Amino acid sequence: MSVLSALAKAEAVRAGRAQPTAAVRHLHLADRPLVAVPLRLAGEAAAPLAIMIGASPGDQNVLIVPQPRDRVLRLRFIEQLADVVLPYLSSFQAGAEELTSKAGETYTRCLDAPQLWTPNQGGVNFLKLLGRSVRFHRTDGDNPVPESIPLLGRWLTWFGDRAEHPGSAVLPAMTSVLSMHWASGQSALEDGNLAALLGWIDPPRGLTGAEAAAIAEDPLQSPPAGPATDPGFDNEELAPLIAAYNAAADDTARSVAAERLERSLRGQLEPTWQLMWRAIELLRAVPAGASVENRWTDDRGAFSYFAAEVAEGTPQARRDPAVRAVRRLLERERALEALQAQCAFDDPLLMLEHRVTGAAFRGTVVHSEPDRVDRSGARPKLRPHIHIRTTDPFTAVIGEELTCVERPKQSGVVVEIDGDSIVLELSGGMGRKLVAEPGSVPEDGENLGFARFKPSPFNGQLNLPAREDTPWTHGGPPPEWTPHTDDDGEDLQ
């Protein structure tokens, strides 16, 4: 935990309310998100118990499995879930735009993409596991299943994989997103409780955050947000209801038992459902950061690409081969670096963290030479100098390149340290002439920041060997087999 994060938590305790740690929202919020609150059976990794799902607060679907250990009932549940999710996904494939890549190739990208919200990271993991459990079910031969079941499995697997990509917004966990924007007065582990976290962020009138969180931690007043259920509920209510369904002698009795179970599970899901939409309203009130739209464009591109693969019948791999796994890891590492830099450039509160650690600074321009031209090379170049004074704990290094926070396309090289001032030679973002465009060079008295990192992602190629040059142990071609023989030429194999 950084110094500023600890300070924000201490201030939350003093004020009795969570403190904002972000000035802007760093995640895209869809106009029509699909909210899902799943529950699973305790002790079973991928045995769905119930789910409440819908695209608006008053239009939710409640699906249950009266006996989660029954394979037929589980598949029927997944088929019903597919009837809700797949039409929602298809609605985003209707509108598309034709684009041309730098290589001159034409491709299609959907105008928008789906966004599936879950209460916490456990919900994300459960949906991914549920998808992986059915994505390879056969639709022909012995015991076939409807085509919608493996199709939903493929999509849930894609959502889960894409959720691991830094900056992606297709499958966000609400507790993680709220923790990015507010600091509560409780531990990070306690922030995993959606009701408790919202109690700190938006406590009811007359209560402090700590009081609201204490009430939220009582399972009788605020059931867990899933996918795990409360052990007391499991023993005292759920187990007898499932046992009653198992003991039902005919279809009528089973229908009555299922209705009782659904009412009980709805009581567990409804409070979290209300919390999810309340949290979405809080996030929607925060303005989006400048780089959010670009990251959502990447999500739209990934969605469009996978939708095309599904339409063409391209099979989904069971697991990544070694080279693809390395490529995916490197892409995620670069995406994480880009995400952290972009969020800092978008948000002065996050940039404070970098200023404290000496990775960035803010200062006032005390002298500017906007018309300076460098004539040392073959061609003259516009290279203004600015003297900037700062009180931040920043140690400049002669020759290092810094990026301007207010003008990300403009960089400055440290050419001199003049007492308490840093002299920077500027380049970029000033036009192509020897006279700078108006307003492109900082003026005397202007306050601005510089950072040791850039907000733009690295777009270079990943230097990985070709398949034929990759060892067979990592997915390359197998070595040629040479028979072993003795001195008389007899095969020893």
Record keyword descriptors for this entry.
12 helices, six-stranded antiparallel barrel, globular, 39% helix, 493 residues, 16 strands, alpha+beta, four-stranded mixed sheet
Explain this structure to me?
It is a single chain. With 493 residues, this protein is an alpha+beta fold. 39% of the residues lie in helices and 16% in strands. It is built from twelve helices and 16 strands. A six-stranded antiparallel β-barrel has the order 9-12-15-14-13-16. Helix 3 (121-134) runs antiparallel to helix 4 (148-163). The longest helix is centred in the middle third of the chain and has 34 residues, at 251-284. The chain is globular. The protein starts with a helix and ends in a 42-residue tail after the last strand. The mean pLDDT is 90.
SSE layout and pairings?
Layout: H1 3-15, E1 19-20, E2 34-40, E3 48-54, E4 60-64, H2 71-90, E5 96-100, E6 106-110, E7 116-117, H3 121-134, H4 148-163, H5 174-181, E8 182-183, H6 194-201, H7 209-216, H8 231-247, H9 251-284, H10 292-312, H11 322-346, H12 348-357, E9 360-369, E10 373-374, E11 381-382, E12 385-389, E13 401-404, E14 411-418, E15 421-427, E16 447-451
Structural class: alpha+beta
* Largest pleated sheet: 6 strands, antiparallel, barrel
Helical residue percent band? 25-40%
Low-confidence stretches are none
Instruction: List how many beta strands DSSP finds.
Output: 16
Strand content: 15-25%
Task: Based on Cα principal axes, name the global outline.
Answer: globular
Please, how many helices?
12
